[in-house]
Design goal:
The protein has no helices and 11 strands.
């Protein structure tokens, strides 16, 4: 099993910044993708961004491109989400997730079902 623990959420004014962290522990994989999703009240959970552990390739949803940056620290088994220029529509519970990659990676996964392990989520609230 893999345990994922998110932290760093909170209340911030529009235009401000937050950095989320997701620390992974437990079972290890030789190759995997770590992603961030978010779910706003009354809405479906949506993909935000993801990063490959081996090569550092990233992919972003259009809604956050240019404002959010995903990064990783392999030594700490931690992935980060730097969120700048926050908007009220960024308000959501943010989840990190892991997709163990088997047999190579042709694209970075963006669908929930492609991720096997999930954290408990951290609330981000952006006040306007």
């Amino acid at each position: 099993q893999v345990q994922l623990v998110e932290s760093g959420g909170g209340l911030v004014q529009a235009g401000g910044s937050l950095r989320l962290s997701c620390a992974a522990s437990g079972r290890t994989f030789s190759s995997f993708v770590m992603g961030w999703f978010r779910q706003a009240p009354g809405k479906e959970r949506e993909f935000v961004t993801a990063i490959t552990w081996s090569g550092g390739s990233t992919y972003y949803a259009n809604s956050v491109k240019g404002r959010f940056t995903i990064s990783r620290d392999n030594a700490k088994n931690t992935v980060y989400l730097q969120m700048n220029s926050l908007k009220s529509e960024d308000t959501a519970v943010y989840y990190c997730a892991v997709d163990p990659v088997v047999g190579g990676l042709s694209r970075i996964p963006t669908a929930q079902y492609e991720y096997d392990y999930w954290g408990q989520g951290t609330q981000v609230t952006v006040s306007s």
